[in-house]
Amino acid sequence: MADSNRQFLLAKRPEGKPDPDTFELIEADVPAAGPGEVLVRTLYLSVDPYMRGRMRDRESYAEPWAVGDPLRGGVVGEVVESNHGAFEAGDVVTGNLRWADYVAVEGHELHPVDPDLAPISTALGVLGMPGRTAYFGMLEVAEPDPGDTVVVSGGAGAVGSVAGQIARMNGCRVVGVAGSEEKVSFLTDELGFDEAINYAATDDYRTALSEAAPDGVDAYFDNVGGPITDAVFSHLNVDARVAVCGQIALYNRESVPTGPRKLGTLIETRARVEGFLVSDFEPRFRRATERLGRWVRGGDLRYRETVTDGLENAPEAFLGLFEGENVGKQLVKVAERGE
Ligand code: NAP
Ligand code: FER
Fold first, then answer.
1. Is 74 touching ligand 1 by the criterion CB < 6 Å?
2. Which residue has a Cα nearest atom 7 of ligand 1?
3. Cα 154 to middle of ligand 1, angstroms
4. If you average pLDDT over every residue of the chain, what do you get?
5. Residue spans of the chain under pLDDT 50
6. Contact 156, 181 (CB under 8 A)
7. What is the pTM of this model?
8. Does ligand 1 lie within 6 Å of residue 126's CB atom?
9. Cα(83) to centroid of ligand 2, in Å?
């Protein structure tokens, strides 16, 4: 075991886009596991768009980080030493932990990961928080019916790529929206989306949508907001459902544009627009994760991960989310299991 422990702190609150100065890397001793605690070595950590919200000095569903606080998020790690009855050395676990090489945490903060069921990194992606977000947001909020046209923005990301495939499994015609030709091919050739729009190749989203969804849009799973969402609102059908999952196009803005938007559409269509948080569905996580796991193992649900190597590169991986550098789930690989 190494004798030094690197960890990231929030160095300052970003204005607009965060940059490398938002983060501070410090070194300390590897902590010891106290009574009831488990020493965990980080193998993978997750970088997620919601972390931008935690960098802001504003109360929200995600409590803000204070300047100087350790950054934290979803981690998959390996137990090095355990003073808790539920875990022993060598176990693979997940939890909401610090961006660090090692952490000592109380056992109740950890959940076991079964390495025989799926690659352990999936506990942060398709079989973790993003997969469950797609599952509940699509099935419970967007409510896809067979034959519906379903549009998914952020279609090639961790949540969107799963959400679109779930709509396909429900017999829908699925149109993804993503920011490159590579992502368009990923969606249509690898994931079975019926159509995909490269929004970076056009300014005319409305025309692109009327070509890709000529019968209009029955359900919209929105990960991005902004002008893409404005365009989709112009194509909603009567009784459409809009599941507002995320608004990443707005996360780095200090003020959000307001004014008359596309709400007249909602009167014409009697569409329903509903925001949701994955945590609202927590009592039902176990079954959702089991079903997602079965779909992955059966080959019905495919997934991609973009893995950045090295804890020191976690800020770069996080910043890349806002530039569309990831395909599928963005992870940071910190160490190899069993080394
Ligand atoms: P992700 O989609 O894997 O990564 C973010 C993607 O957003 C990028 O790859 C990029 O792809 C796209 N993007 C970035 N800036 C954009 C912009 N200005 N306009 C259009 N697209 C942009 O991230 P994720 O983890 O799956 O999260 C997706 C969304 O779901 C986020 O908004 C997140 O906040 C939300 N979310 C919500 C919940 C919930 O409980 N409500 C839970 C998890 C995640 P392109 O190349 O296509 O631009
Ligand atoms: C959660 C609820 C929501 C959570 C993440 C989110 C990490 C993400 C929301 C977003 O990206 O908008 O419990 O756990």
1. no
2. 154
3. 5
4. 97
5. none
6. no
7. 0.98
8. no
9. 30
Determine whether the shortest distance from the Cβ of 276 to ligand 2 is under 6 A: no
Answer whether 11's CB lies under 8 Å from 248's CB: no
Ligand 1 pocket check for 62: Cβ under 6 Å: no
Contact 14, 51 (CB under 8 A): no
Asked if residue 32 lies in contact with residue 338, where contact means CB atoms within 8 angstroms, the answer is: no
pLDDT digits (tens, 9 = 90+) for 97-144: 999 999 999 999 999 999 999 999 999 999 999 999 999 999 999 999
- Residue 100's nearest CA partner among 1, 32, 4 is 4
d(CA 111, CA 87): 9
Dump pLDDT digits (tens) for 197-213: 999 999 999 999 999 99
Which domains can be identified in the chain, with CATH numbers? 4-125+304-333 (3.90.180.10), 129-279 (3.40.50.720)
